[in-house]
Amino acid sequence: MKGEGVIKFKHNWKKERSMPYKWIAELNGWRDKLYKAGLIGEDADGVGYGNISCRLDRNIFIITGSGTGSLKKLHAEHYTRVTAYDFIENSLTSMGPVKASSESMTHAAIYETIPEFNAVFHIHHPALWKNLLTNLPFTARHIEYGTAAMAKEIARLLKDPLVLQQGIIAMGGHKEGVLSFGKDQDDAGRSIEKWLTGL
Q1: What is the mean pLDDT of residues 118-147?
Q2: pLDDT score, position 4
Q3: How far is CA 61 from CA 51, 81, 86, 87, 176, in A?
Q4: Mean pLDDT score, 185-190
Q5: For residues 80-103, average pLDDT
Q6: In 58-176, which ranges are E strands?
Q7: Which residues partner with 170 through β-bridges?
Q8: 124 partner at 20 to 30 Å CA-CA among 44, 81, 102, 175?
Q9: Closest Cα to residue 147, out of 104, 115, 196?
Q10: Residue 40 lies in a domain
Q11: 2 assigned to some structural domain
Q12: CB 150 within 8 A of CB 139
């Protein structure tokens, strides 16, 4: 997982106070579940992995902050808002107490492509990742996470009816990386649960 957690886009970050907890309460509940299941956490090298987000309004979304994957519990100060992004310029703007996750451009690509989707979960699970590579379309192996190229690749895959139906994608060039998404947070979570049950 070369470069894990490294921000690969131009990041315009405006530091602000934490948003109201009620804005992130449901999302934080899912984050607790995913962390407890080992789908978000810290690898053997001490590098955190996994991030989750939910749409706040149109193209604005709330996402876990960079470097928070390894933390057992998150609070309001660990979340930030992505308020703008540009795939051509490979730039993103976030506002909050922490910088947005290094995967923010990937989340943005999903929200931009499918307006009906309101939640995105990025987890790591080796067996699930391998299973998805065998059974569903996945992102090209040469494309790195968190880049404009990945955003374009995600948009391509979201045109596939099977991907939309299953609500889950393996990231071919991001070992163990899996994205789930849906109309709400429960929808995104169910996609993961369904595939894990089938392993």
Answers
A1: 95
A2: 53
A3: 13, 6, 14, 16, 24
A4: 98
A5: 95
A6: 60-64, 79-86, 91-96, 119-124, 138-139, 168-171
A7: 138, 178
A8: 81
A9: 104
A10: yes
A11: no
A12: yes
**Counting Cβ atoms within 10 Å, is residue 188 exposed (0-12), middle (13-18) or buried (19+)?**
buried
Whichever domain contains 46, its CATH number is: 3.40.225.10
With 60 as the cut, is the pLDDT of residue 69 above it?
A: yes
**100 to 64, 156, 188, 199: CA distances (angstroms):** 7, 24, 20, 32
What's the number of domains the chain is made of? 1
Average pLDDT over residues 148-156: 90
Residue 59 included in any domain? yes
Q: Is 96 left (phi over 0), alpha (psi -120 to 50) or beta?
A: left
Which residue carries 């309460």 as its tokens?
A: 25
**Could you list the residue range(s) of the whole structural domain that residue 110 is in?**
10-197
- Token match 């921000």: residue? 7
In a domain, 1, yes or no: no
- Could you count the other beta carbons within 10 Å of the beta carbon of residue 93? 17
DSSP one-letter code for 123: E
Which uninterrupted H or E stretch holds 68?
A: none
Cα 43 from chain centre? 17
Give every strand in the sheet of 177-182, ordered side by side. 10-15, 91-96, 79-86, 60-64, 51-57, 119-124, 177-182, 168-171, 138-139
CB of 143 within 8 A of CB of 112?
no
Residue 91, CA distances (Å) to 82, 139, 144, 161, 194 in order: 11, 21, 16, 29, 34
